[in-house]
Amino acid sequence: MKVLLIPNNLSDALSAEDIVEIMTKKYLQHNPNDEIVKFPASDGGSGFSELMINLLGGEIIHCQSVDPLGFPISAHYGALDGTAIIDISDVSGIHLLNKNDSDILCASTFGAGLLIKDALDKGYRKIILGMGEGSPSDVGMGLLMALGIEFLDAKGNIAHKGGGFLDRIKKVDFKNKDKRLAQTEIILACDKANYLTGVNGLIYGFVKGYGVSKMSLQLLEQNILSFADFTQSVTQNDMKSLKYGAGAGGSVAGLWAYLDCKVSNGTEVFFEYLNFQEHVKNTNLIITLDKHIYPNSLEGFMSVVIKYAQENNIPVIALGENVEVADYLGIDAVFPMNIKQADDRESAERKAIEFTIHQVSRIINLKNKD
């Protein structure tokens, strides 16, 4: 039997490449005669660029940037056949922030914009952005400022960076916008299908879980609504209506509105580059793994896996850390993983994956004995 293993990473602790090796080893203990095809995957979230380069043989470009609060940091991105591949979260990720109101309100994606500028300086005119967890509230304003777009307050002064100041933006000046952007294709590889605002939007769907006060959450939501209305008056683009708009701290919505970037499902982008259709051929079973398996998540990574499986009539077994869907069209069986809370996240993930794939492989072994 040919088994295709397709894990997404669960966090920064273990990469998808690490996970697929764990799955393979445990599976073959009970089914040594099965053919295993390893396909570590990414949905555009953390590790997207690195995994693409590792699997396709590109190069790593090193440069300097700044973190979400403006402090200098060393950074890098990938390059492949004339295309730059950049992870927003590498320099603008929430993992670089303290969980307090001040950091969240002032955090900016300016550093991610500097990476794009570096890629433009080096001649790249196609850029793929992995739109994982970016700065949690500036909706890409900092990134756009790094590319020359100036956001001004009522007095004509350059606005402060960060979601806490979005409501002060009253004007926008494009005269210094980087002219090379007009000749550059920018693709946003998005990992979450959430809209920018509302109960499941950027603030109440994601930022709420980072220890931010109720007052600051309300302020951020109001500021984003204000900025979205301002943006629509300037560009005629409604950021609130964009599926995937909440991605990367709302940067998906901001880049789409001001730079007319192409918004894509990150898993679809990854699968296309890795020629996933060829890996699916003659497969008897797909075993996949993702952090979340619940109704909203099924519009992201899992939905693409299911689509390919259905097109090729392949059964799917899914493993998930957070499972709220036990019966979903296209998934034949769902196995929750019990990842225990511990200081050593890597060890906790490893043990949970080993245990769960062990149970799955034992069940398949019973079938193979028939």
Provide a quick synopsis of the model.
The protein is of the alpha/beta class and 370 residues long. It is 37% helix and 20% strand.
What does this protein look like?
Pfam families: Gly_kinase. 37% of the residues lie in helices and 20% in strands. The mean pLDDT is 92. The protein folds into two domains: 135 residues, Glycerate kinase, domain 1 (Rossmann fold, 3-Layer(aba) Sandwich); 220 residues, Glycerate kinase, domain 2. It has 13 helices and 13 strands. The two termini are 13 Å apart. α1 runs parallel beside α13. The strands form three sheets. A six-stranded mixed sheet has the order 3-4-5-6-9-10, sandwiched between helices. The protein has a five-stranded parallel sheet with strand order 2-1-11-12-13, sandwiched between helices. A two-stranded antiparallel ribbon has the order 7-8.
